[in-house]
């Protein structure tokens, strides 16, 4: 399955301009603060207006030349913000299941076990640590079996010991679901352990996409501007 993202948007002083093709892979996106990584995820999700095209498999999510943008609620995506956004008046379980009543019980239980939140389901968000809330947000992003998963610093608040287990759990789920995952991270270990492709961004441009699974680990695509 191949996917296409070709978008341009100006946000403040940032000019985001990305043109990339990819498959059902684990992709780590890195770059300095302000490079446009989070804006890129928001454009793919439809949370930020952009010009261009977004094709996820056989689905067209954006084709601005035809004046078409698929509403966010119709995009089968999982999105995790860099900071957990949970409704404080609902339990963890209800936060996860909100708008996802058709989720299989066995799938829900598997996610809760693999991301180590079984003991948190009846708690309210204010009773969670930052790391716990982050894991809850990750389960919520995965529970509807999205066609693409967009993660913004998903492990940033995790202790080192659990971070390794979460990486392995996410890797296994990507292989099971066979979907693309784009994971924004400043942690070089995320790229070393997880990335099948490693994208590097600077000032709104993809400088390179590196196939880390290639024996030669060669640069496949360069977007350096003169």
What is the compact description of this entry?
The protein has 226 residues and is an alpha/beta fold. It is built from six helices and twelve strands.
List keywords for this structure.
disordered C terminus; 226 residues; 6 helices; Rossmann fold; seven-stranded mixed β-sheet; alpha/beta; single chain; five-stranded antiparallel β-sheet
Assigned CATH architecture: 3-Layer(aba) Sandwich
Q: How many domains?
A: 1
| Helix content, binned percent | 25-40%
Radius of gyration: 17 Å
Q: What general form does the structure show?
A: globular
Low-pLDDT stretches are 215-226
Number of helices, counting only DSSP H or I runs of 4 residues or more: 6
| Major beta sheet summary | 7 strands, mixed
What do you see in this structure?
By secondary structure, the protein is an alpha/beta fold. It has a single domain (3-213), classed as 3-Layer(aba) Sandwich (Rossmann fold), CATH 3.40.50. The chain has six helices and twelve strands. The protein has helices at 37-45, 92-97, 105-114, 130-142, 160-177, 188-194, and strands at residues 3-11, 14-22, 26-30, 51-56, 59-63, 68-69, 77-80, 148-152, 181-184, 197-202, 205-211, 219-222. Strands 7-8-9-3-10-11-12 form a seven-stranded mixed sheet, with helices on both faces. Strands 2-1-4-5-6 form a five-stranded antiparallel sheet, covered by helices on one side.
């Amino acid at each position: 399955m191949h996917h296409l993202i070709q978008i341009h948007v100006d946000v403040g002083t940032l000019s985001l301009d990305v043109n990339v093709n990819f498959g059902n892979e684990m992709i780590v996106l890195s770059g300095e603060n302000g490079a446009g990584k989070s804006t890129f995820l928001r454009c793919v999700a439809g949370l930020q207006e952009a010009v261009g095209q977004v094709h996820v498999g056989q689905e067209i999510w954006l084709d601005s030349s035809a004046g078409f943008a698929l509403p966010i609620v119709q995009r089968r995506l999982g999105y995790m913000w860099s900071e957990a956004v949970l409704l404080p008046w609902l339990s963890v379980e209800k936060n996860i299941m909100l708008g996802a009543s058709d989720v299989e019980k066995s799938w829900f239980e598997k996610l809760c076990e693999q991301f180590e939140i079984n003991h948190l389901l009846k708690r309210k968000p204010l009773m969670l640590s930052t790391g716990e809330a982050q894991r809850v947000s990750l389960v919520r992003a995965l529970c509807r079996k999205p066609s693409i998963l967009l993660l913004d610093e998903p492990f940033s608040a995790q202790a080192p010991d659990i971070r390794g287990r979460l990486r392995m759990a996410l890797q296994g789920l990507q292989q099971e679901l066979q979907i693309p995952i784009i994971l924004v991270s400043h942690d070089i270990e995320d790229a070393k352990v997880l990335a099948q492709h490693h994208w590097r961004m600077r000032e709104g441009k993809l400088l390179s996409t590196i196939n880390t699974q290639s024996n030669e680990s060669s640069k496949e695509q360069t977007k350096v501007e003169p």
